[in-house]
Write a structure and sequence with these properties.
The protein has helices at about 1-40, 45-60, 70-75, 95-110, 115-140, 150-170, 175-185, 190-220, 225-235, 240-250, 250-265, 310-325, 335-360, 375-400, 425, 445-450, 520-525, and strands spanning about 65, 85-90, 145, 270, 275, 280, 375. The chain has 17 helices and 7 strands. It is mainly alpha-helical and about 525 residues long. About 55% of the residues lie in helices and about 5% in strands. The strands form 3 sheets. Strands 2-1-3 form a 3-stranded antiparallel beta sheet. A two-stranded antiparallel sheet has the order 4-7. It starts with a helix and ends in a 9-residue tail after the last helix. A hairpin with a 2-residue loop joins strand 5 and strand 6.
């Protein structure tokens, strides 16, 4: 029965989400227990290790931890300011990414269920994760460190919800976009550029973050000796070195976002009044973390050229988009406004996602001036959108040959099918061979073919008795060859059992032919059909 199936799907996902949360907590606890047993011989209060593990797991999901140092800390430091309360809010998102990834895998399985079953399972999975977070936060309350209980209940659940929801959307590809377009009565001719803008925006984000990761790795490699000296100054044991390594792995996503912000231009801060950017570096006292050794304390003249790297990454994405999603065809050539929509939309999407990432990577890492760390989300979003948008436009213009001229303000085709250069041709790695017959089917053709089956995205509630798609109109019978690369031969264009009505033939993308156009059989001529 559908109701029973929904109940079991929801219960199963709730149990799985609770197990995922428990696995992350156990992983953090194992690290704490290993350090406690080897370095301290299991001496002291074991609940301290549990609270540290719980705080680490919650911090990895964006939960703020209120810190109130005890009198011992003030006496050890020798400063009265060391006893002031502060909030640790810089997330160790490497832990949260584990939760996100495991729920992504769960969402891929849930995507095969009907929409109502999927929604119930996702909701119950998020509730289970939030419940675990609330229990963990309640158990970790202490006078020295106390997690925010409201955030402990909401933020881990939100991470799980985003993981499962993103996987379901990805499993349906662009059908959800077609459903929204049908609800908003958006014309189909706009969908190709909108789809391309979404994919270009996400790919541009990945490219910029890849640049940031490469710069962080390069900085650690060039300043490897400084990192080792900083690690030795901490005086930790071998187990402590492993623990610090795991802590830095948890902080790696934050470091990558900081590196991307530095490459984009605005840079980031480590303490109020400091600045780390390609144009200059002004640092004060920073925490003794080996990962921060990647920062060069003095800006070099060549660093100003680093801002070109995100643009180059976006150019490469634009080339791929131009030669795949916007390759064009004889029936539907690409117009200049489609490139403009893709560049602007992709740039805005990439900039917005970069801004969100910058906002999540910022926070407090200590009292006083260290309460302000990380990049400025608004500046990163603005500069990221500009650089990615410009790079996408340059890449799409350079990624196709046979570009038509724009005259009189009309939307003229920029490239017909078969004229888009291959990637190896663009970089000079071989002959073109640009025959249209050698091309793989355009992925956008498959998406356009789904436009008539938007209702299949949601399915029926019981998932068993979906209605069959209505048969295509007779006008789209074998005469649909009008959208192919070559005109049909005169003897092969006959339509069986009733010729299509004039003007009813459609191409690959559903574009109508000229009204009143007669088939070769009706006119008695041997001229090939107009491919438009």
């Amino acid at each position: 029965m559908p109701a029973v199936r929904r109940v079991w799907a929801g219960i199963g996902q709730a149990v799985e989400s609770a197990a995922i949360a428990a696995a992350g907590i156990v992983l953090c606890a194992l690290v704490c227990v290993a350090v406690w047993g080897i370095d301290q011989g299991f001496g002291g209060d074991p609940l301290v290790q549990w609270r540290i593990a719980a705080d680490a797991w919650l911090l990895g999901h964006g939960v703020d931890i209120g810190i109130t140092p005890g009198r011992e800390t003030v006496l050890a430091v020798g400063l009265e300011e060391a006893g002031r309360s502060w909030v640790l809010s810089a997330g160790a998102w490497g832990i949260g990414l584990i939760t996100f990834w495991l729920h992504w895998r769960s969402g891929g399985r849930l995507a095969t269920l009907p929409l109502l079953d999927t929604s119930i399972a996702i909701l119950l999975g998020a509730v289970a994760t939030g419940t675990i977070g609330l229990l963990v936060g309640s158990s970790a309350q202490h006078g020295v460190a106390s997690p925010d209980l409201a955030q402990a209940a909401v933020l881990p659940a939100l991470v799980a919800l985003l993981g499962m929801g993103a996987a379901v959307l990805a499993a349906h590809k662009h059908r959800w976009l077609l459903a929204i377009a049908a609800a908003l009565t958006v014309e189909e001719r706009w969908l190709r550029s909108i789809r391309a803008a979404f994919r270009a925006g996400f790919a541009g984000l990945v490219g910029v973050l890849g640049v940031g990761a490469g710069l962080v790795g390069l900085g650690l490699l060039l300043r490897f000796t400084d990192g080792l000296l900083l690690l030795e100054s901490l005086g930790v044991t071998a187990v402590g070195v492993i623990a610090i390594f795991l802590v830095q792995l948890a902080l790696a996503p934050t470091a990558i976002v900081w590196g991307a912000s530095w490459a984009v231009g605005p840079g980031f801060m480590i303490g109020q009044g400091s600045s780390v950017s390609p144009l200059g570096t002004d640092l004060g006292p920073v925490p003794a973390l080996p990962l921060l050794a990647a920062i060069d304390p003095e800006a070099q003249p060549w660093m100003a050229a680093v801002v070109v790297l995100p643009v180059l990454a976006a150019v490469l994405v634009g080339v791929f988009v131009r030669q795949s999603l916007l390759a064009g065809s004889a029936a539907r050539p690409v117009h200049w406004w489609e490139l403009a929509i893709t560049a602007v939309g992709g740039g805005v999407l990439a900039g917005a996602l970069l801004g969100i990432a910058a906002m999540l990577s910022a926070g407090a890492i200590g009292p006083g001036r260290l309460a302000v760390t990380g990049p400025d989300a608004v500046l990163v979003a603005a500069w990221g959108a500009l650089e990615v948008g410009v790079g996408l436009l340059i890449g799409m213009l350079a990624g196709g040959k046979g570009v038509g001229a724009l005259a009189g303000g009309f939307a003229l085709p920029l490239a017909a099918e078969g004229e888009g250069s291959r990637i190896r041709d663009f970089f000079g790695f071989g002959g073109g061979g640009g025959a249209a017959a050698d091309r793989e089917p355009d992925e956008s053709d498959e998406d356009d073919a789904e436009a008539g089956a938007v209702g299949e995205v949601v399915g029926d509630d019981d998932g068993d008795d979906r209605d069959d798609a209505s048969p295509p109109a007779e006008s789209a019978a074998p005469t649909a060859a009008a959208g192919s690369d070559e005109a049909a031969a005169p003897g092969e264009a006959a339509a069986p059992d009733g010729a299509a009505a004039p003007g009813g033939a459609t191409g690959d993308h559903g574009g109508p032919t000229a009204v009143g156009a007669a088939s070769p059989e009706a006119s008695g001529t041997d001229s090939p059909r107009d491919p438009r």
